[in-house]
Amino acid sequence: MADWRQAIARELSGDTVGGMSEDNHVEIYFDGDRVYHAMLTAIASAQHFVHLEMYMFLSDTIGKNFAQALSSKAREGIPVRVIFDYIGSSAADPMQWASMREAGVEVAEYRPVAPWRKRGGLFGRNHRKNLIVDGNIGFTGGMNIGDPWSQQQYRENAWRDTQIRLTGPAAGHLDHIFIDSWQYCTGEKLEAHIPPTLTQPSGSCRCMVVGSQGLGSRKQIRKLFSVHLDKARHSVKMTMPYFVPPKRLRKSMLRATQRGVKISLLLPRDSDVRVVDWLREGLYPSLLRWGVRVIEYLGPILHAKTMVIDDNIAIIGSNNFDILSVLMNRETAIVVFDDQVTEELNR
Length: 347
Description:
Layout: H1 3-12, E1 16-29, H2 32-45, E2 50-54, H3 61-75, E3 80-85, H4 94-103, E4 106-110, E5 129-133, E6 137-141, H5 151-154, E7 163-167, H6 169-186, E8 205-213, H7 219-231, E9 235-239, E10 243-244, H8 247-258, E11 262-268, H9 274-290, E12 293-297, E13 306-309, E14 313-317, E15 321-322, H10 323-327, E16 330-337, H11 339-346
Parallel strand pairs: 2-3, 3-4, 9-11, 10-15, 11-12
Antiparallel strand pairs: 1-7, 1-8, 2-5, 5-6, 6-7, 8-16, 9-13, 13-14, 14-16
């Protein structure tokens, strides 16, 4: 690994889960139906456990497919645990959770908006989109569970997003994040499952799993962005649906451009949150004055959250480049040190 990659790994090591892991396989998905098929296949193959941590778990066609798959696996006697965010999944049918529980799925809600309830509250959401199966297969990225991400359901209006499938030790690190959230929601401390040692490495990717813990633990995602902006030598390419960075990250961007780093932003012309569009557009004069290239996406809703640094390092996760992700929410980001992955994101 190049010296500057090692420098980034050292800077972030204290904020990662398990540090750098070797021999991972990373597969990128841009099509919701393909990733849903892969996730459902992984759930069906589970032999030890299924852990799902999801901001938005709806009760539409896609949501029902997942609810049925999780319930079916629980009926086989495999432990299945699900965490859904109370606000993100507020449109879901409560009977969906009741049916899953009846099938044996352990379901926990994250931070109900009820001041009288323990660990309730409005701010500090669980914004993650993680699925872990048996500790050696993991999925994460920007895709929730719902019809908007399905071309079969939404056709030309399907949301544009990015998700990855991890095979290898990084999937186990992803599970440590779930275990922490489960203890927060239920008070139950789960033991990490260590999968049998693979006779052959899953792949050749080096990965780092970064997970922020929400309110009271605020530095991980901010540092993830600031370190990469400060260490970048040539270029930073970012795809973001909600771009409202706090002042500290705007300063990191400015410093990067002053060093000659070319920053390109792919942002939506119209997101699903209009107030964010107004705030983002208010930053354009400064960004353009710094020499940042701003590209507006004119298709359906853009929801991908990715970053490519110097065409050598990729970041894929649930985290937006905004104050909520940086300061308040539980998020997940995977740092991938692999030229093929960055090439695919660039393409």
